[in-house]
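Dock magnesium ion; give full complex structure.
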Amino acid sequence: MVTMSIIKADTGGFVGHSAVHPEMLATAQEHIDKAKVDLLIDGQVRWCGDDISLIMVHRQGIEAEAIHSFAWDVFMTTTQVAKDLGMYGAGQDILSDAFSGNLKGMGPGYAEMEFAERPSEPVLCFLADKTEPGAWNYPLYRTFADPFNTAGLVIDPKMHAGFTFEVHDLFEEKRALFHCPGEMYDLLLFIGSPSRFVIKRLFSKTLGEIAAVTSTQRLGLMAGRYVGKDDPVMMIRSQSGLPAVGEILEAFTLPHIVSGCMRGSHHAPFLPVAQGDAHPTRFDGQPRVVCLGYQLKDGHLSGPRDMFDDPSFDLARQRSNEMFDYLRRHGPFEPHRLPLDEMEYTTMPAVAEKFAERWEPTADEVPELVG
Ligand code: F6R
Ligand code: MG
Ligand code: MG
């Protein structure tokens, strides 16, 4: 069995919240290279926007203390580099002072899966910035449940039985399994609300194997205050009874609307980009995603191939830009700005507080003009 882990954190932005300084990336890669001697079989450092992702292969299983504490140490070091260079928001995602065995609730996000490596094992790693974990719901549904997206659901006998979706309720900290295609409509009832219900894992019914995993933590819910969006990651195994690489990528040709963007407070389309464009700019957006493709062999990574670095996605990018421009014209109005219940996790309540005294019961008389 091998385990693939992506552990990610924003430990400081260059410039503002737009990207990661190359020295921070180099420092993280040095740590990974040293760890390849014993802890890791292989590992790479990649990024999207202001988030560093450690993409690691090892034999420690998921939720392993050795792996989590290693990642924690790496992020402590990149935080120090960020501080030394005066990067913006150094240590942003480090919510705790000390590591205590596992990264859950500590700030960094992670997606991990353990599996028996197939003779040829294509894996796609998706890294996003300026959005939240529910951003994966739409493409995962399209990939694993929609035959208009995924031809294999109709044509491949190994896919015909469908997939099981593990959904997490982030508010109640509960989870449930949905068996598709039979429970497709029931599934949609929940995952159509991606700020609360997120797809955590996918399993092939025929192969009995894990097919995908996402990072699901929401910092705002953990910290009880605004600490940015959670810039999620995801891994999907592909081919031979699992969705083909092209079927998984097809789900990103609609730049669906996600929440995040400027101040984590806006709806905006999800832009698929090449690694070289993984730097949010206009209005701290658009929320964006890179896809890094790997072939795994005895735990070693060949790659990445930069999967969205392809003219096939130009139309999606153009649409995304047009949609974004249109939404931007709404300024502070919903539905560009998030609904009120979501704004509770931003800095807006602090502004509203100033006017708490001013509100009085509605009455028929014309109000007295004061001030
Ligand atoms: C969104 C994000 C940015 C910041 C914005 C304000 O996830 O990180 O849009 O919210 O740039 O940042 P501060 O409050 O640090 O000036
Ligand atoms: Mg940041
Ligand atoms: Mg970020």
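Observed: The chain has two domains: 1-111, 116-352.
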